[in-house]
Amino acid sequence: MPVESVYPALEPLLPQVRKPVQYVGGEVGSVVKDWDEAEVRWALLYPDAYEVGLPNQGLQILYEVLNEQPDVLAERTYAVWPDLEALMRETGVPHFTVDAHRPVRAFDVLGVSFATELTYTNLLTVLDLSGIPLYSSERTVAHPLVIAGGHAAFNPEPVADFLDVAVLGDGEQAVLAITDLIREWKRAGQPGGRDGLLLKLATVAYVPRFYDVSYHPDGRISNVVPNRPFVPPTVSKHTVMDLDAWPYPRSPVVPVAETVHERYSVEIFRGCTRGCRFCQAGMITRPVRERSITTIGAMVAGGVAATGFDEVGLLSLSSADHSEINEVAVDLADRYEGSNVGLSLPSTRVDAFNVTLANELSRNGRRSGLTFAPEGGSERMRKVINKMVTEDDLIRTVSTSYASGWRQVKLYFMCGLPTETDADVLAIASLARRVIAAGREASGRRDIRCTVSIGGFVPKPHTPFQWAAQCAPEVVDARLRALGGALRADRGYAKAVGYRYHDGQPALIEGLLSRGDRRVAAVILAAWRNGARFDGWSEHFSFELWTRSAESALATEPVDVAWYTMRERDYSEVLPWDHLDAGLDRDWLWQDWQDSIAPEGATEVEDCRWTPCYECGVCPAMGTEIQVGPTGERLDGKRLLPVVGGR
Amino acid sequence: MAKPAPRSPASPAVQRLVVRYAKRGKMRFASHRDVARAFERGVRRAGLPIAYSAGFTPHPKISYAGGAPTGVASEAEYLSLALTSRQAAAEVRERLNAVLPDGIDVIDVMEDAEADGRSSATSSDALAPTASVSPADSEASGSLPSGNSGSFSGLEASEWRVELPGVKPEAAERAVAGFLALREAPVERRTDKVVRHLDARAAVVEMDVIAADPDDCAILRMVVLNTAPAVRPEDVLTALRGGHGIAPSSSPLTTRLAQGSRTSLTGKNLS
User: A505: Cβ–Cβ under 8 A, 6 or more apart, which residues?
Assistant: First the structure.
């Protein structure tokens, strides 16, 4: 049965909303397939604004992987802003995909990518506008399966009631496995109905409704157990083991509207074993798997030709750690020398060699600013979080930056880390003064600048800090105020140092959503009913709305927001995500947590790529292994950059 | 792998092409900046030898005539390209159409006779609106009229077609007659930051009602001078709404049909 486009009904609304072009599709690289020729149809949702969602690498990859299958159709959809939401409700226009403006409700699957927990309320808006029941338990075979992925899906419990399935880990192979199961079930005449399909999917992904959670009287979880036969007690993440075999995206969608990243991005490796204890991404994406220099070279050439972008981003969690980053940088810089294609390493560590790399990649462009993330202000703090950067390393690195002609250095920090004191945060001010002094000396100029950017720390599941108490927003805010005062106090430096900070209150709600359990679903629903939308946007976020919603939704429970966020957990407590397996050995995580807060000072952990395995557990548990070069291949040249500093 | 185009100043511009393009269908919702980005990427994907500006952040030398507003369709938008080696105009049109999004469609590519023998470095490549109109009429001609102040100086006026859903032709006729009898029609247009005060009447050279089908959708045709700041069809509609009781039941659909000299656009009353 053909599905009609909602565009004729949508079009009259578009002149009445801001930036209507984000809703019309038709971009270069977008795909519209015949509805009736597809057997399995996916609507891929990024539950934030188009300008944020379109460049998302994960969704672009899955869009291509699925559409390459001849009998599969995938279309994209994004959250609509409140102005269009109001008009859609008024006129009865359902939520739609931007590719062919088909109603989301007509698809087999609504796949939603959660990069952050602050997009949960937007999922509810999309479900509601689509005419899909909010609760999984109220859906029938007539409704799409709602499947979540992305980093936040490693603890999907706060939204478990609204999801049918959550997929942990890499999506490339997982979406195809799920597609196969759906196709098989449809061909067989939908045996067992919706539950029949979910039972099959429970072998490759997490189906929350097949697990019962019970609680102690004090509010802690007593256990989480399957409630059906053949449903596994724990669910493991997916890991793609050969990135060269999955060279996506080849031809990403090129937006007509302006978006937050306007570049062709290649993931040069996936995973990170630096071991920063706050970093969920580094913990859940192990082991490190590199893409080879030759695949990177081919993807960049193909991607630039297909998109017309004039910037290439070499993505990863710590890009300079690629075993052949020197060769990659030199060869790509040579290839694009004199052209107008710019190259960038969006994620750089505090390391002088990274400046050399940035210099090489910026041959074509202006040296405006470099960004480094020491994360902790004092050396003691950086040991606690296992970010092994000494103050001298940092000064050496920024001196090299300013001496090479970079005018501005941005430094990222977190506030509210475990064991942190006022002094640890105030240390950032003296560090900034040293940075400016060193920069003026190295460059011989007065007009160099340094920007300090700082936000509240949120403890995340599957990290050593998953047991930690989140710092109270009042404490975070007081420290941020004190830091601002200290940065302004010294008149010789105040004008050279910029200061940006994020308040503690949004971080507390992010903390609730990050480490919450199934009881938090009621809070999310109440907040959404009270009008919460686009919670990651400061102009839309309301702390008052969230605390009010939490108070009413948790009134009959023995738990509250403080219990979920500012309470330290002990070893024996069952965590809401303990049945979801990222491969990390729970005892190793606990030991690493203990090592970080030891009264005699934190113990540091080296990177297992160049030191012996420290048994985090991922490789044996998942049947995976580190995949790094060198391959010894080159794209063209033979030249290399001198390595200074080193790792 | 396509070899990237070399950049100036090593390669100066040797040819300037004027491109007439349309903004149709869904792409009418693209803003002027959106269209500009699409062309910059399209030129790169098409592998055209576009000249680049010098300086720290070189950008492709593409100049734009004042664009139709967001939400307004057009059959007559103009830009010019500075190229570092000579290309056949027809081939440029085909190569661009192969890579641009559907709805941003190149209609015609013409040699810019005005630019010949002139250093391309002197022409502006900013997103400047068309210069305000000189009082003297230019000669009407089949191709792009040319003037003294750059590639687009001949674009003195625009011919617009405006569909007014829910407005009966007789009501529209009365409103138009009333509007044309005015000496001035002051209107305000609010944008995010500023309120502009414009005289909608002064910019309108000609306006009439085209036979409507279906009956409850009057269609206006108007010729409006490309002034700076621009008087848009929506400003004229504001005046018609305010003083003459025109109230479309949904958003009017506006299309720019043509741009050119005042004389080339007037006197074509189709009613």
Answer: A473, A477, A543
Q: How far, in Å, CA of B2 to CA of B8, rounded? A: 19
- The per-residue pLDDT for range B191-236, each reduced to its tens digit, is 778 899 999 999 999 999 987 666 788 999 999 999 888 999 999 9
- Contacts of residue B20, defined as CB under 8 A and 6 or more positions apart, other chains included, come to B76, B77, B78, B106, B107, B108, B109, B110, B144
Give A107: exposed, middle or buried? Use CB within 10 Å, 0-12, 13-18, 19+.
Answer: buried
- Select the residue from A18, A23, A28, A307 to test the B interface by mutation, using most B Cβ atoms within 10 A: A28
Does A353 fall in a domain? yes
Q: How distant is the Cα of A9 from the closest Cα of chain B, in angstroms?
A: 12
- Do A340 and A224 lie in a common domain? no
* ipTM metric: 0.92
Q: Tell whether A11 is covered by a domain.
A: yes
Give the distance from residue A11's alpha carbon to the nearest chain B alpha carbon, in angstroms.
8
- Does a structural domain hold residue A552? no
Structure tokens at B164: 């007014």
| Separation CA A188–CA A196 (nearest Å) | 11
Q: A520-529 and A120-130 are packed helices; what angle lies between their axes, rounded to 10 degrees?
A: 60
**Banded model confidence at residue B122, pLDDT cuts 50, 70, 90:** very low
Q: Which residues of A38-51 are buried (b: 16+ CB within 10 A; e: fewer)?
A: bbbbbbbbbbbbbb
Contact B29 A14 (CB under 8 A): yes
Whether cis (ω within 30° of 0) applies to the bond prior to A630 is yes
Best CA proximity match to B160, nearest among B119, B196, B213, B210: B210
Task: Flag whether A192 is in a domain.
Answer: yes
Instruction: Produce one character per residue of A545-576: b if its CB has 16 or more CB atoms within 10 Å, e if not.
Output: bbbebbeebbeeeebbbeebbbbebeeeebbb
C-beta separation of B22 from B74 below 8 A: yes
Judged by a CB distance cut-off of 8 A, whether residue B194 touches chain A is no
pLDDT at B229: 87
Q: Which of B67, B72, B1 is nearest to B32 (CA)?
A: B67
Could you tell me which of A539, A416, A552, A392 has the C-alpha nearest to residue A471? A416
Cβ contact, residue pair B251, A341, below 8 Å: no
Instruction: Give the global pTM.
Output: 0.93
> What are the residues whose beta carbons fall under 8 Å from the beta carbon of B133, sequence distance 6 or more?
B156, B157, B225, B226, B227, B262
Domains of chain B, each with CATH number or no CATH: 15-128+147-153 (3.30.70.580), 158-265 (3.30.70)
Q: Is B81 left (phi over 0), alpha (psi -120 to 50) or beta?
A: beta
Both A41 and A123 in one domain: the answer is: yes
